[in-house]
Amino acid sequence: MIQYIMCIYFFIMNITNIYSSDILIIGAGQSGIVTTHYLSQNRDNNIWLIEKNDRLGGTWNIDNHYPNLVANNARDTFTLPDLQALPNTGDFPTINETYSYLTQYVKKYKLREYIYYNTVVSKVSHRRTHEAPFGYKYLIEFENNPYSLPIIYDFVVFATGYTHIPNIPFIHGSNEFNGQIIHTSMITKRLKNGVNEKNIVILGGGKSSFDAAIWAIKNRAKTVNIVLRHMHWGIPKYIGGKTPYEGEWNQNVIYSRISQMFLPTCLSCNNAIKDIPISTWFLHNTTIGKMIRNYFWERISKQIIEQYSIPKWLIPPRTLYEDGLYLSVLHPELYSLIKTNKIHIHLCKKISKVDKYNVYINDISNCSIPNGVPYSNSSLQADIIITGTGFKSSINDILDSDIHRNLFNSYGQVQLFRSTYNPNLPGIGFVGFKHNSNTMLSAALAARWISEYVRGQSGRISINGVLQNMDEVWRQIEDGNRFEREFSSIHDSYKKENSHGRGGLYTGNSIYPYADAILRDLGINYYRSNNWIKEFSDPQINTLYSGMDKIMEYSSINHVEL
Q1: pLDDT of residue 425
Q2: pLDDT digits over 265-297, tens only?
Q3: How many CA atoms lie within 13 A of 178 on its CB side?
Q4: Which residues make Cβ contacts (< 8 Å) with residue 36, sequence separation at least 6?
Q5: Is 268 helix (H, G, I), strand (E, B) or coil?
Q6: Which of the residues 35, 121, 365, 530 has an alpha carbon 20 to 30 A from that of 556?
Q7: Which of 370, 391, 412 marks a domain boundary?
Q8: What is the DSSP string of 5-21?
Q9: How many beta carbons lie within 10 A of that of residue 63, not counting itself?
């Protein structure tokens, strides 16, 4: 039936020669709303922004996470370029503040008219046609279509993030468990009555697991146990009484180009010496440079250990540099709660099974407590099990075979240029699939790139411009994915092909290489000073926002007045 509808549609298009830019954006989180804003500046676009929930926000949807969720970024560095006004109630924005900020953004730019809630995509397929601006029309099937949305589009933007479905691992015996098994993202909805006098067992060693543990303690849980494979590094919120981002000296350390040279860098992704300073190449490609780089990270590690007073048994087994995938800003009370035995850490492989009231830990010989003595008892009482085991992708399930084959490589990694574009899928854009240390700014940069690409020859991103050399585009895509695999070799998911592991992750934490590339594509000078020392030593985050402001000035002239 659907095929017949497609044929009739294309027949009508051919005989009438009518074209309308119909664009579907999937996901109303920060990536989706900023993409909608930029694309809506071209009044020729007909835009539908769909969201599976009944609220916008994505990660920052106040109904779909835990109440004490706080951003990793300091307030001044966690804003969209064209609305820099987060509520000023603390150094790090909370989930409520960020949600309020995103709703303010939607209101300011009158985006509500584009949003359709409680709408879920079940299938995306495409058909080649010469009548479409990008050579394809995209057929969308919905699980539900309460607004009778169109089913055929010229362009589709995935703003869902690569991983957005809660990952709850199977635990043997879970059907017999007398309590609840939930994901950290379900805490607000599923634990409205609190956890007073409840025994809580948390699975996982990421930021969400530790945040859930602290939330449980604050809500008078009887016991809180965390079962994890090993500890990961975290950055203190405050160093010497200040946030890492506060004050001139700290900003110079964190957000200068010279300091970010020490971060993991995909040299070949950016034509190495051509686009990356020779000093960065030196630090990551030479024996002496690596020694300097490693010493830099060792000093930071020692500072973190001293500030948190981390006992030896809780020091992460990998170096801070190697553990960069998991790096996050940790709650300042975490280690004090561990040391006072309010939060119990179990360094084991995994939970082996559960019964009605207990969680059983496997391989207890590898578990340790603060004094290093192995456990004699492998069971933990549990009323509630909370899994902080991340998210998984649903995009695999909704793409037709042809789209899927072109989007993913054999390792399950998405193949994207500038984190937005696949040359074999010219009518599909991606925003928020690969992130770095500043998710808001990187989402805005990707969204602006997409908006200019959609404008085609009249915009600054075109096949005859940035995308002229497809061989170079594919080289950068392949080099970027190779870097992710090599740097992430600690993960089993990357050790064999067809594993479909953490393919959406952008492991380069520095915002600068990505921002520089986007601004360069858009014709914006990404070097902001004629003084070389000043350029590399001063904090540059504000000038990156200034670069985006220049893009907005361009938009106000060439689109509509903002």
Answers
A1: 95
A2: 665 454 444 556 677 778 888 899 999 989 988
A3: 9
A4: 25, 47, 49, 111, 114, 115
A5: helix
A6: 530
A7: 391
A8: HHHHHHHHHHHH----E
A9: 13
CA–CA distances in Å: residue 270 to residues 112, 343, 476: 38, 44, 7
Which of 47-56, 243-252, 451-460 has maximum average pLDDT?
A: 47-56
212: domain range? 166-232+327-391
pLDDT score for 309: 87
Domain boundary among 362, 391, 420: 391
| pLDDT surpassing 60 at residue 126 | yes
* CA 44 to each of CA 20, 93, 165, 197, 544: distance values in angstroms, whole numbers, following the listed order: 7, 36, 34, 58, 29
> What DSSP letter does each residue of 149-199 carry, written as one string?
--SEESEEEE-S-S--EE-----BTGGG-SSEEEEGGGHHHH-TT--TT-E
Token pair in block for residue 356: 């009605």
Which tokens in the block code for residue 491? 């993960």
CATH number at residue 385: 3.50.50.60
147 and 203 inside one domain: no
Residue 432's pLDDT band (boundaries 50, 70, 90)? confident
Backbone φ/ψ region at 135: left (φ over 0), alpha (ψ -120 to 50), beta: left
Average pLDDT over residues 359-366: 68
Instruction: Please write the tens of the pLDDT for every residue from 295-330.
Output: 988 988 888 898 888 888 889 888 888 887 677 888
Residue type, 133: P
Q: Which residues, other chains included, contact 17 with Cβ-Cβ below 8 Å and sequence gap of 6+?
A: 131
In 3D, which of 346, 510, 387 has the Cα closest to residue 442?
510
pLDDT digits (tens, 9 = 90+) for 386-425: 999 888 777 888 999 999 999 999 888 889 998 899 999 9
Give me the torsion for CA of 30, 325, 536, 529, rounded to 10°. -20
Give the CA distances from residue 74 to residues 5, 55, 513, in Å, rounded to whole numbers and listed in that order: 50, 25, 20
Mean pLDDT of 341-347: 90
**What single DSSP character describes residue 72?**
S
SS3 372: coil
Residue 211: strand, helix, or coil: helix
